[in-house]
Amino acid sequence: MASAFLQLINEILRTAKSQGASDVHLKSERRPIARIYGELKPMENFGGLTAESLKDFVKNSCPAAFLPRWKHDSQVDYSYVAAQEGAEKIGRYRVSAFYQRGTPSIVFRHVKEEIPTLATLNLEPKVFESLCGLEDGIVLLCGPTGSGKSSTLAAMLNHVNETQKAHVITLEDPIEYAYTDKNCIFNQREVGIDTPNFADGLKVALRQDPDIILVGEMRDRETFETALTAAETGHLVFGTLHSGNAQQAIQRLFEFFDPTEQAGRRRQIASTLQATLTQKLLPAVKGGRVPAVELFRMDALGRRIIEAGEFEKINAVMEAGKDVGSRSFNADLYRLIQAGAITKETGLQASPNPKALEMNLKGIFLSQGGIVG
After folding, report:
1. Longest CA span, the chain
2. CA distance 294 to 329
3. Where are the domains of the chain?
4. Is the pTM of this model over 0.70?
5. DSSP letter at 197?
6. What is the strand order of the sheet 33-36 is part of?
7. CB contact at 8 A, 250 and 294
8. Closest of 187, 197, 251, 189 to residue 219, by C-alpha
9. What are the counts of helices (DSSP H) followed by strands (DSSP E) for the chain?
């Protein structure tokens, strides 16, 4: 690959980073586009990039172990460290290269070097620290791509590193944040390089004396089954799942299994699942974005409705579970609006029930027993 083109890619990434971009999109014959605080914006200072140049970039920056995947599957994910000659490193990026309509495209996701804290992410420390202190079970962090799941998990593991003595194994595709051992021992394994897949890595992890295991994504039945086994044998498992709320997340888990297995699996999942957190990133008043989080913390009632398959009751149980730490999206949006972190308009637009949130902001709260003012 021509050095000049590599430097051009790095300059695009440097410029995007200076503008606060989380992602950069490179598409054949089109100028680069950056996602800045959630909004896609063309990078006017750069012209279109040729298909051959993009293919050369992947060929020369992709780890050798992943090149067969690029050749045969026409898509590949890997990590890339951007640097310019004679200058400081620009940063680490998660690269997703793929073909569309026969031409290559690349999306870069900036991975911040400094591991965030719960406070810097505007997450309530007490809520998340209590989850970090669990001895076993499964905690799922949910939300769409780009909702900040990786940053939140990194902040939680950073808290574990500072407050506990534990062996933490992470299985990631690719590795994003790099942890330095403090009170904990961290072993980070990248899918495709250090282990063939999540399921195999997780099975082997159970023989490596872990206390906490992070599974980058619950992708298939085999991975989730092994996670259940890990949770049942006294390990705390953190994982991510693409879903929009607690009910969707829990129903999604059962999609891994045949209908004939549902009854037995309901008992197993009800007994091992500790919590689901679903996250959205919203425009912040002071610039940037701030997470709004729905938390479904398991209690006896929550476990009973999962075991009974009464998933439609999850929202009601969650709203009634404030004593155990559960919180609806509306409750967190209310908190963020009251704290001045987001505007009322932003909160109402993001709310799954804007009428109820509007009433909350007027001091009217509905409970199962009626109106509480």
Report:
1. 70
2. 5
3. 3-111, 125-372
4. yes
5. S
6. 39-42, 33-36, 21-27, 103-111, 89-100, 75-83
7. no
8. 197
9. 14, 15
CA distances from residue 204 to 184, 221, 228, 356 in whole angstroms, order as listed = 20, 17, 14, 47
Distance of CA 55 to the CA centre of its chain: 28
Tokens found for residue 54:
């993009």
* Residue 202 structure tokens: 């997780």
3-111: CATH class: alpha beta
Q: How far is CA 273 from CA 86, 149, 267, 331, in A?
A: 50, 18, 10, 22
All residues at 6 or more sequence positions from 210 whose CB lies less than 8 Å from its CB, including other chains: 167, 168, 169, 230, 235
Spatial separation of the C-alpha atoms in residues 46 and 267, rounded to whole Å: 56
In tens digits, the chain (373 residues) has pLDDT values of: 446 778 899 999 999 999 999 999 999 999 999 999 889 999 999 998 999 999 999 999 999 989 999 999 999 999 899 987 656 789 889 999 999 999 999 999 998 878 999 998 888 898 899 999 999 999 999 998 889 999 999 999 999 999 999 999 999 988 888 899 999 999 999 998 899 999 999 999 999 999 999 999 898 999 999 999 999 999 999 999 999 999 999 999 999 999 889 888 999 999 999 999 999 999 999 988 899 999 999 999 999 999 999 999 999 999 888 888 899 999 999 999 999 999 999 999 999 999 999 999 999 887 544 433 3
64 burial type by CB count under 10 A (0-12 exposed, 13-18 middle, 19+ buried): exposed
Q: What angle do CA 238, 239, 242 make, to 5 degrees?
A: 150
- Residue ranges with strand state E in 151-252: 167-172, 185-190, 212-215, 236-241
Neighbours of 178 (CB within 10 A): 13
Contact 341, 293 (CB under 8 A): no
Closest CA to 109 of 189, 33, 22, 187: 22
Topology of domain 125-372 in CATH is Rossmann fold (3.40.50)
How large is the C-alpha radius of gyration of the chain?
Answer: 22
Note whether 363 and 373 are within 8 A (CB). yes
Distance CA 107, CA 56 (A): 15
Q: 274-277, long-range: CB within 8 Å, 24+ apart, which pairs?
A: 274/131, 274/134, 274/137, 274/138, 274/139, 274/298, 275/131, 275/139, 275/140, 276/139, 276/140, 276/141, 276/142, 276/241, 276/246, 276/249, 276/250, 277/131, 277/139, 277/140, 277/141, 277/142, 277/152
